[in-house]
Amino acid sequence: MVNVFHQHLDELNDLLVDMARRVGDAVAKAGAALLEVDTAAAEAVVAADDEVNALQFKVDDRIVELMTQYDPVATDLRFVLGAVRISVDLERMGDLAKHVAKSVLLRAPAPVVPESLRADFAAMADAAVRISEKLVGILAERDYLQASQTELDDDELDAIQQRIHEQLPSLGYGPQTAVDAALLARFFERFGDHAVRISHQVVYLVTGDVHLDRS
Amino acid sequence: MVNVFHQHLDELNDLLVDMARRVGDAVAKAGAALLEVDTAAAEAVVAADDEVNALQFKVDDRIVELMTQYDPVATDLRFVLGAVRISVDLERMGDLAKHVAKSVLLRAPAPVVPESLRADFAAMADAAVRISEKLVGILAERDYLQASQTELDDDELDAIQQRIHEQLPSLGYGPQTAVDAALLARFFERFGDHAVRISHQVVYLVTGDVHLDRS
């Protein structure tokens, strides 16, 4: 009985891994759409977000099924609560990738990213893709030792966002370009925050250490 | 046994109501701090956010206690999962109030809000306070008929944000002022989004209707 229960928990975890993969694909495609002003790619990102949202419902349904069929111990309950939290963060990461895609569509055929910030946004998109790839590994393997690795990419995202916000006033852009760039930088930065929250959840679930950042 | 369990669920709900009250206080104080450039009030908002975060931990602990002591049916499980989600949204609302307070501290003694946008931000702060007050009532009474009322305030927050973003390019402000105003407007707008998500959760928990917006 316990083994069957843990097998179900593994299946629950597979749903989270699936969400993380899709969210990673979304941010990769949204980043490329942003830099290339690729509206077809941007529209694909917007459309694909529905599947991420549907997976979040599936996580809930699976949890209720599990909990009514079995009588889990406290450790397993913590895992289940962690899965709820993780699915909320993943769903939000999907939204943020979608926000990036939508800002491309809003200004196309003009680029949202001004030429002098292109390298910064390319670096943000790269860091977001890296953090997603690590997240898939951390969730798939419950690899809490790798969990701290997400903080490196998140620190980079924070630093680039701060640099963009500091530079913006002196770059000579109009307010619309500046606002677009500031919001875009925030979308990537928040994407990183959610990834770090998830990896802290995994550390907590595996080791019991409360490194949860409730900033 | 069932009655005792439901009494515990009520206590769990009391924690959510407590979180909602504190978050409402935070956004009211942050809004006033913003309009009056009141750094003492802003600092109080930043400091008080720790208590909201601590309540989120308490919600988790209470849930694990409950679930290990009792063997809840599916309906009660949905309530418990809803409580987890609601606490995540409330914690995030606390963060957003804190972000408003921090932006006051960052630019003080200069005001963050330029004179010509003062009325718009006063209206956003008012709508955020109203939505919080409704949320406290909805959570305290499980009043799903009131839940749709949060959408009115949220629509107002969305409309003001959009107006601010559209006006910004032509108001003649420099990029820093424009970026500050755009981010502030986004903090209030997101605050409203989380309130609506929570009220949809309450509708779902009470009626079983899936009006959950997973945007």
TrEMBL record, chains A, B:
| Listed InterPro entries | PhoU (IPR028366), PhoU-like_sf (IPR038078), PhoU_dom (IPR026022)
Gene3D superfamilies noted in UniProt: Phosphate transport system protein phou homolog 2, domain 2 (1.20.58.220)
* Top-level taxon of origin: Bacteria
A Gene Ontology cellular-component term: cytoplasm
Q: Where in the cell is it found?
A: Cytoplasm
**Span of the secretion signal?**
none
SUPFAM superfamilies in alphabetical order: PhoU-like (SSF109755)
Q: Which PANTHER family match?
A: PHOSPHATE-SPECIFIC TRANSPORT SYSTEM ACCESSORY PROTEIN PHOU
Q: How does it assemble?
A: Homodimer.
* Protein name stated in the entry: Phosphate-specific transport system accessory protein PhoU
The organism encoding this protein is Glycomyces paridis
